Here is the input.
Amino acid sequence: MTDILKKYLFADQSTRAQVVHLEQAWQTGLEHQHYPDCIRNLLGELVAASVLLAGNLKFDGSLILQIQGDGPIALLVVECTSEMEIRATVSLRENQPIPHSGTLQSLLNTQGEGRFTVVLAPRQSSADFRPYQGVVPLEGDTVAEVLQTYMHGSEQLDTRLWLAADGQHCAGLLLQRLPSQGGQSIVESLETWERALALGATVQAQELLQVDCDTLIHRLFWEEDLLAFDPQTVRWHCPCSRQRVSNMLRMLGREEVEQLLRERSSIHVSCNFCGKPYEFDPIDCASLFVDNGDSQPGDTTLH
Here is the structure.
C-alpha cells in the first residue's frame, strides 16, 4: 500500500517510530507544478516531514511548516491536516538563478535571514488549545536538521528524521524519545533510544523511496518488540475549484472582466497554491453575470 503513515511504539514505551511513504499523493501534488529537481526534492522532504509530525496532532486542525527564504526561493509552505490531507507550494523570486545542485542553505538562506515557522492551527480555538506559531532561524543543512533543531529547542523532544524525495516518491522515517513514564527506568529508556538511533542511522535514501513501510521497519528493527498501530492513509487535497475561481471573477465585476477579455482571447487563472489552471473564454465569462442576482460570492480564496 502506498500513501500511508505507519506508527510504532517500542515495548518499553520510551521511543516512537513512524514511517511515511507517498507516491500517488505526491505525484498529484506535482501534476501542475514544474520545479527544478533540487527544489522539488526539498519540497518533497518537507511534505514527508509534515505528515510525520501531523501524525501526532491531538486536535482537529492543521500543521503548517513554512520556510521563508532570502535566496532564489522566497517561500516553501506545506500543510498537513489531522485527517492526513496535504498540500504544498513553492514561491520563487524572479530573475534569480537557481543552482543546479542547490541546497537548503543556497536556495533559502544566502544572506542568513531565512526563517523556519511551525504553525499549529486548530479549526476551532478552545480554552484547551489555541493557535500556535513558532519561528526560529534557519539552522541546518537539510530539512531534517532544521526540524530536529526546532523540535529539541521548542518542544524539548529528542527527534531524528531521515527524509528523501524524487519525482515519483517522497518518504521519511521519524524516531522520537518520549517523556519518561512513572516507574520507567531512565537507563533502560536511554538504552532503547540509543539503540533505535544506531539502527535508524543505517537507513539509505533509496530504501526510503523504494521500500514499503512494513518492510523498511522490519529491516531496521527486526530484533525489537514493536507495537504497530493502524496505518493512516494520506492524500493530496487542495480546495481550489472552478466555482471558487468563478466567484473571484464575479467579485472583480463585469467591467474589469470585459477589459481583461479585450486584452486577451480568454482569461487564465492558476491556483496560487497547487498551480491547477482554469480557463474562461468569453462565453464562460458572460455566463458569470447572467441570472446571478441571488447567488453569493462565497469563498474567493484559491489556496
